[in-house]
Every structure is written in structure tokens, then in C-alpha cells.
């Protein structure tokens, strides 16, 4: 392989994150050594100030007076402090609340009196170019600062350490001229969008009285603002926008921004399905659904998609970011991040209250997760369900969490759609220039309750008295445009009338509308499909690889570049690996996995693995990344392979966010094997919302297939209750309608085949694997070279290591995972030649048909036992019990039921005492094999036998 330097990070990927060198170094974290207000520093330079005063005196025909210079310097210093305070705190005096309920006194440090200028409005001061002035009167300076920082837009940005970012924002917000400027045509377009938003909600309320719609009423300024993102984003190179949002305003966005036909939404309101009748699926409520479409502004077409979401607040956020990252990779846009834009629309209470928001903000600058900046739009209703802001957060604004990643925040009054649209335009420009997150906090109100059936005056009577007397956004804006001469008296009414006529036509058309196709196997998913049935679709997929590729991968996985100083222990690992390829035996779990990854990459697929310790592996088993021991350069052997792309990332210490991100990535790219690995399987608990709401049910709810793989270390080895169980039972409880696959695999070769099968079939299903811990290096859990080649494939059922003729088997012990080796070892030591141990490698979809064939051949079978390490109320028992009985019945063994051998029921997954664990493990193995009664476990077994006789 040689010493090809291009295989070292960061050249491998998108130039993100730390540069080569010590792992603790991240220059992006260091604030530049520069003044926070460079123009202010320059203006206060003594030489500059003296020259300015001298020039001014010269123009006036007077000599420069030292006292005048001293006074001018004092004035300038106070003027500069005034500018500085407005930049930092001006937003506190901004006109943000449409209802006027948020009473905020102007801070004293934002007054002229505080700065010693009281009554001196006509005095000229030198500010050296700040805000576009050299010399300016105090009064003019003060009015300009108030107009820039205390109008309908309040900007928070002085927490940003980067000087250029601050200067960029200052240049667009500061100056004596009006900053928010749109043409008359643009203003009419903004008014038209607001009217469509309002009239649409009014129409729905009239036609579907009392039906929940979670309307946008009061926040309609968001509609023209989102359209501005499309228009100005397109001008800057954006060709795809991926949206995520919760309920409020979703139907309005679907119709008036995404362009989903009104008749389709009306059809769904009337109880119709979003998909053809023959597609199946459970469906979901209309305000959870997504869509995709194309819109054009100025002859630039932008593809847009709104990701479907559950009711769990903000759960869709990481999914959107993962999908955006995948689309950037597909478009070869990972260096500039120009073409694909993620936009997340939040509620104020959720943005402040949901931890997943911070997890997603934390992705913004991390290699492998960065999307080049996400635009966050907060619909700030100033209330969360029935909870007022003072009880919903401990900070002044719901957006304060974003300061943790130095994102600028634009607070804006939702009654001024022009200002909101300006904020979105500025956000697009900032994101394009710096590739960083930015937040728009639109202060508005919720005209009705949490949903249209709620009575909000139960809890906020004063607020809703104000709201009911408050004019609509369109009325306020139309009045202003009439005053400016932009529209006449009849314009707004004519727009309303024309739009309502169109809505009536669409409403009539909805009565005969029928969906003719399902939107799920297009684009990059073309050629994939839904499997005809779970049983036959999984048979005999050709997953073996040829000898030439096998040998080539062996060389890639064991050759060390000449200039790489690897750890001495890694050297021994690589030597052992080399011996495997030379001898053809002893292949362990990590090598089998690397062979699966490498073979898929060689065949043109992408492979993406992330998790908290995925590069090395939690158990020091993987070593996908080799670190130079002298300078910490990173070398990844699998990235040297041609055709596909291999990525492995040590993720942030997040489960909920990272798993959601990977789900979103897999949603967009079915041609990449996307895997999330938990450090220990029980860490999946922290991502349970993603598992329940997306992974297990996303396909049946939203017709969104997904091939994400979960790697969850699982196994009872006396390490206590926390890291023994990946909660296998929870995944099995979620299994139905062929939704996911659950495996507990015992051989490296079978693991190799299941990973390859995941990509080589014509469909995608999430795959949950209970991965091993001790089996990673177990002497019996090895495979031979032949098991990866020839006619081999994934085995849903694995036979006993010891060959026992089927007709000789008296007792069949079924199990899955690590306990199989304990059983086989104890059986062999006891000399039992009529007890067979058969491993169920794939628990769901359950391999009932091949199991029945096997049982039918066991003509002398007397007992079937299910053995597991987990407590009886955990693990597989309650899932497989009846399925095994069904297989026995299909084999002609009516009345034969499996017996349980395992731990008793327990509230905790495992004991915390190694000695107790050992006794329990020996007992359950002994009972399963019929070697002893095993005390309490035996009584459990006898109870099962009594049930059989009864």
C-alpha cells in the first residue's frame, strides 16, 4: 500500500473539524486576538482623533485648541461606549411584542443621560466611520442607533467571537438609511402571502368546524419569510431545502410554502387517505405528514421536502440534519454546503425546553455532522400549551440556548411581515457566508387555543382579551402599504376574494380526488421496493464474496504505511489478523465486520458508522482508525478502497440526537450502509423516542422505508445491571407488520452476511443487532475463510457446533446469543449426545418455516426448551413462546410447547454481584440441559411441565 499521505485525515472527507495534530487542538474554538469593535478601536486612536479635530478646526478657519481636542476625545469615548452598549443590549429595547404585553423599560445604559449627553443632542462628535458617520450630532447618532437596534428587529450577536461575522451583521443592520428595504412589488408579494396564510386558516375553520388543525393564526408573517428563504437561497446556490417542524402552522406551510395541492389537504380533512388504498400502512394525522415538491423563483428551481414527524416535540430535528448531510454527500456538496439547506421551525416553549435542541445545535461544528449551518425559525407564541414563559424557561428569550454555539439571534416582531422577511433574507446571507447556524425568533401570538377546540381564557384571560381585540397581521400591513401609496383601498379585498374563489374550487375538487401513487420509491430510492412477504424475501440472498476480493481486503486490513507509527498492541492485533488470512481460520468478529464494510465499499456502496467510540471500538476490538503515536495523524485503511466511501465517526456523547441524525441520513441514502453503535446496548434507552416513533413505525405511518442498522452490545457477563442488557424485549415488543429486523448473532461470518444482506436486497428495513462483548474474542466464536465465500449466506438458524443426527435428538435447546456457547460447552462436558443446541440468529421476522422443517426431522424429540440469560420478563421468551409452539404444530408435533430455562422475573436487568451472576448462569444452563433441578429455576421449569400436562 505504501505511504499514501492522501489517506490521512482530514483529506479523507470534507475538511471539517480538527486539523492533523494533537487531538485536543481545535483552532476554531479560539477567539481571534482582535477588538470586539474594530471600527470603534480605530476611531479612538489618538492620532486619528487629533487629525480629525485639526481637520474640523481647519475647515472652520480656527486653530486647533488643545482643550477642544480633549473635549472631543471625551465626547468620542462616550459616543463609542453608547454605540457599544446598543450593539450589545439594544435588543432589550426593541419593539418585539405585537400584543404589548411584554413590558420592558428602556435600560438606563441605553439613554443619553446615562452617557452624559443629556440636553446635548446638537453637539457633534467624532465616531470615525461607525454607522457610516465620521462626525455626527449626538441626536442623529442616538436616533440612528435606536432605528438600527430597537425597531421591529432586535439583533443579538456580540457573544460571537469571530470579528468578521460580527462585522458582516453590523454592515447589514447599521446605518443612517432605512435598513429594511423592499420594492413596491416585493411589498405586495409579502402582503399577498400573508393574506393567503390568513384566509387559508379561516377557510379551514369554516369548512371543518371544531377539527384540530393547529393553525398558524397570529404567525402568518412566517409564510412570506419562508418564501424569501427559497428565493434568496436559490440566488446563492441553494437547490434543495429540507424542513422540519411540529404541528403549529404545518398545514399552512404544506399548502402555501410547499405547494401541496389544497384539494389533497381538504381530502385528508374529510377523512381520506394520503395514499392509494392498495399501499397499506396505518397512516397518520394530517398535521404529522410531510411532502416534497419543487418551486421556482426567478427561473431557479429549488426542491423542497418537509420531513414527517410525530407529536414528540423537536424529535424531527436530528432527522432533518441527517437527511441534509446525506443529500450534501450525494450532491458532492460537503465542502461548501451551498446546495442543501436545512430549516427547522420550532415552537418557543419547545426550543427552550427540549434537550434535543441543544444536541442538534451541538452538531453544527462537528466533522461528520456539520451541515454548513441550519436556519432555526422560532414561532414565538409567548405561550406553551397553557404555560406562560415565566414557567417555561429561566432565560429572557426562548432562543438563549443557541448562544452556546455562538449563533446570532434575530428577534423580530411578527406583526411586521416585512421585518420578518428581512430577517430571513439576512439569515440566508449569513449562513451562506459563514456556514453556521442562525436563529430567527419571531414574536407573535396564538389567536386560538393550543388547538382549535381549546379555551385559552381558562389560563390566560388577559392575554386573550388582548388577542381578540388585536387586528390581523394583514390589516396592519395593508394599512401601512396604503399609507405608503403601494396599494389602493381595494387591493387587499380583491386578493382575498380571488384566493377564496380558488379555495372553493379546490374544495369541490377534493370530493372526487383519489391519490394515484405513493410517494416513497422515487429518486435515489428508485429500483427498491416493499418486500412481497417477510419470509421468502429474506431467503438465500447472495452475500458471499470471491476469493480475489477476499485476499485483497486482507492486504488492505493488515498493511501498515511506512510512515505510520502504530501502537505496539495494535501491531500484535494486525499480526494476528494477518495470520487469519494466511491460515484461513480463526476469523474474529472485528475482522468479519471489516470484511463486510470493505466488500460493500469495493462494490460501490457507502458505509457510515457512528457512535461514541466507534473508531477504536468500545472493547478495543474494531481499530477502524489507526492513530500515529507520535503526532496523532489518523489513518483509516478502508478509505483507501476504490468505488464507494467509508466513514467512521466518534460521535458526540448523545444518543437521541445522533440516532435521529443517522436515521435521517439513511432516509435519504439507501445506497449507504448506515449504522449507529451504542457504547453499551442499554444506552439506547436515551434514544427511545427515535426508536418508537421513527425506526419502528415510520414506514407504516408515513411510507418512509429506512435501512438503518443499530449495533447494541448485549450479553450477561457479571458486569452489573447497567451494561448487561440492550433491552432486547423492548425491540421485540415493537415488532409487527414486517417493520424491523432483530438479530442476536453468534458467529463472525453470520454477522458479515447480515450486514451485506442489508444492502444487497431490493428493500430496506431497519436492522437491530444485539452485538456481543465477550464473543468478540471467544475461542469458539470464530469463522473460517470458506464461510465468507462460495455459496454461503446469512443463516437465520444456526446448527449446533457438535454434529448430532436429527433423529437422535431427544431434547432441543433453542436460544440466541452468547448463552449458546455456555450451553454447548456444558453439554459436551456432561457427555450428553442426545441434546442439541440450536441458535435462533434472527428473532424477527421469526424463522418459523425453517424451524418447523428442522423439528419435523427430529422424530424422537421429547422436550423443547427455550434458554435465555435475561430474566423471564425480559429477553425473548414472551415473544418466541407461541411462535415456537406454532412451528412445532407445523412440524406435526401438536401439543408440544417450549419450556423456559432462565433467570426468574426481575425488576433490574441483572445482578450487580459477580458471584451471584455465576450461580444464576450455571443454574439456567444446567436446567436447560436437564442436568439438575436448579432450585428456584427448576420450580419454574416444573411449573411449565405442569402446564403442558394440563
UniProtKB/TrEMBL annotation:
Keywords: Glycolysis, Oxidoreductase, Thiamine pyrophosphate. GO terms for cellular component: cytosol; oxoglutarate dehydrogenase complex. It comes from the Bacteria. The keyword Oxidoreductase applies. Its EC number is 1.2.4.2. Residues 1-28 are annotated as: Disordered. The keyword Endoplasmic reticulum does not apply. E1 component of the 2-oxoglutarate dehydrogenase (OGDH) complex which catalyzes the decarboxylation of 2-oxoglutarate, the first step in the conversion of 2-oxoglutarate to succinyl-CoA and CO(2). This is 2-oxoglutarate dehydrogenase E1 component. It comes from Qipengyuania marisflavi. The lineage of its organism: Bacteria, Pseudomonadati, Pseudomonadota, Alphaproteobacteria, Sphingomonadales.
